[in-house]
Amino acid sequence: MKLPAIEILDEKDKRLRLISKDVTFPLTNEDKKNIKDMLEYLKMSQMDEYREKYNLRAGMGLSYVQIGIPKRIFVVVDEVNENEFENYVLINPKIVSNSEELIYVGEGEGCLSINREVEGIVPRYARITVEAYDIEGNPFTIRVREDLSIAFQHEIDHLNGILFIDRIDPKNPYKNANTMREI
Ligand code: CO
User: Fold this and answer.
1) What angle do CA 90, 93, 95 make, to 5 degrees?
2) Does 155 participate in catalysis according to the annotation?
3) Domains delineated in the chain
4) Ligand 1 centre from 28 Cα, in Å?
C-alpha cells in the first residue's frame, strides 16, 4: 500500500478554526477521492508496518477541515480486530441525543493536527446518537459509545473550529475527573 498524499494541517494553521459548511449532494469526485484517501491514511496509521515505514502517528479520525477543506465531513477508522477495520464516513453530522454519563480518555486525547504532548482530560458523553448523510447522500442514524463516541465528538468539534486542547482547563487539567468514568 502506498500512503495517500494528504497534508494534515498543524494546530497553528488558522484554517483549523473555520466553521465548516454543510455539504450539498452529489459529492464531487474530488471529495470522494479525498474521503477515500483519509480512510486509507488512518487505516495505514493503525498498522505497525506502515506506521514505521512512513513514520506516522496512529490516528482514529480525521475531519475534512484538517486537510484544509472546511466542509462538514469526517471519517473514523476503528480497528475491530487485529488488522480488521470498520470505516465510518459522516457528512453534515448532528448529535441528536447524548448520555448523561461523561467519560474521558485516561491517557489523554490525541489529534493528528497536534504534534505535542498535552496534559489533561477532555469530558465527553459516554454515548451519543448522531444523524448524518453517507457519501451517496442517504440519511442515516448511528448510536455510538465509548471510544467511538469520543472520536465522533472530537471530529464534530473540528467541524466547529474546536480543538480538544480548548476543552482542557490549563489551570486545572484534571478538573472534575472524579465525576467521570475513565476509559
Ligand atoms: Co483531531
Assistant:
1) 130
2) yes
3) 14-182 (3.90.45.10)
4) 24
